[in-house]
Amino acid sequence: MMLAADKLCVTLGGKDILHSVAARLQPGTITAICGPNGAGKSTLLAALAGLAKPSSGAVLLDGAPLAALHPRERARAIGYLPQAGEVTWDMAVRSLVALGRLPYGDEGAEAIVAALAACNLEALAQRPVSTLSGGEKARALLARVLAGEPRWILADEPLAALDLAHQLALLATLRRAAQAGAGVVLVLHDLALAMNHADRVLLLDKGELVVDALPEDALSHVGIARVWGVAARWLGEPGARALVAEGLTPR
Amino acid sequence: MTRPIPLLLIALAIAIPLSLLAGRVWIDPASTPNAALILLDLRLPRALLALAIGGGLGAAGAAMQGYLRNPLADPGLFGIAPGAALGAVTSLLFGYAAPAWLLPLFALAGAAGAMALLALIAGRSGSVGLFTLAGMMIASLAGALTSLVISLAPNAFAMSEIVSWLMGALTDRSWADVRIAAPLTLAGIALLRLTGPSLDALTLGEAAARSLGVNPARLQALLVLGVGLTVGAGVAVAGIVGFVGLIVPHLVRPLTDRRPSSLILPSALAGALLVLVADCLCRILPLVTELRLGIALSLIGAPFFLALLLKMRRGLA
Lengths: 251, 317
Hints:
heterodimer; A: 251 residues; B: 13 helices; 73% helix
């Protein structure tokens, strides 16, 4: 149940986006991918999901190259939640969640009910998606991923644009999935969320993996100064930290 | 959620027998002379053609809207219908001496040419944007070439024949036309139904669809073939019949759970019903000459399109 990047390079439009990234992701934990804008976070997540083709190197699932896996098998193993949150047709929440069963081609009624329950959506199951709030929609989209019962849950900025309560609710759902054995990988912009909720942080800068460490180490004020060029310090206790950004530092 | 399929089947079961009796001459099977002949050789093939063309356009429209994730998409967008029309119009240049099978053959060749060009330009990327632009390019190229062919017509008769053929009609069609259109349309609808699960996945965007195991190149190939067969066969026997592929999925969508896959078959049935009824109206209306089917549907379709746009504008305001 291992997902790993092995000397992974990705080139998009002639531009090197990722350069020789090597990382092993742990099932049963939450891994955060952090880094400045343009560092290659989304590309790394897409490559881990098998959606961005490596120009060299590979993504390995249980030691075998992801690219060699049948797309349906890959889809059963890895659930991917894109950032855009797009839902073209105004279907009911239950129909939306049921899309997560497509890799199995079955009704998967039990999995759908479980996913709706995990995201606290039972009362909204018959509501059209267009009538949901932003937070409710984010929960519905996560439930779609959970309905596929993937071993890996890869989500791109799932907490952006959500209020505090929805952020914590979504994180709690993801934590339960991790405790049930799934590997959870999140691209996170909010460093405090990564610091307080991730088990491990991959810090990317200009397409390279700078640090792969515990949040306290990866997101230390030294690391933040080096990668973001920002003088910052952490307040509070481990697990309940807040970040104070004090200003730009000359890099 | 209501189930539209039984509803549409009941409507068709009522409309088909009525359409056989309706026309400039209303048939009473008991008393009209030669009733059996008229029914079997004139009205029945015409009704079957209306069903095939409408069914094909409805299914193609539903699949296209699902694929392009746009409720305003229409089968004509891919350039397949204009390609088929170009082929058909070219065959009309051969004049009256040409055998009857030449026109459908040329139309199908035109559709196939447009499909091949689409596949060639869009390549194996499976990208929706590239594909749409390629389709629009082919549509405008085929349109320009069709105008060129019309301007090259050797005499006024050929030109008038081409222009009236382009308007789309089901007048004076025979079993030979049914034998061309029906099997190709059915095969096309079957292919389009196969795209259902992939179209459902596309609801979540291209990246999410791929993550759910959708193969974009396979989806595109199925779609081009399905739309090519249904639309190509329709143009080959009836000329250009517009708006059906645009309107029908809209009318049917509220009756479904709004997944693209649950729209394809009901759209086929509703398209068949719409064209059948529209063709009957064309026959019944007391005009000097029979109203052309393509014109009738556009006359119905344009106001519908306008209403749709106004509704969208209200949604944006």
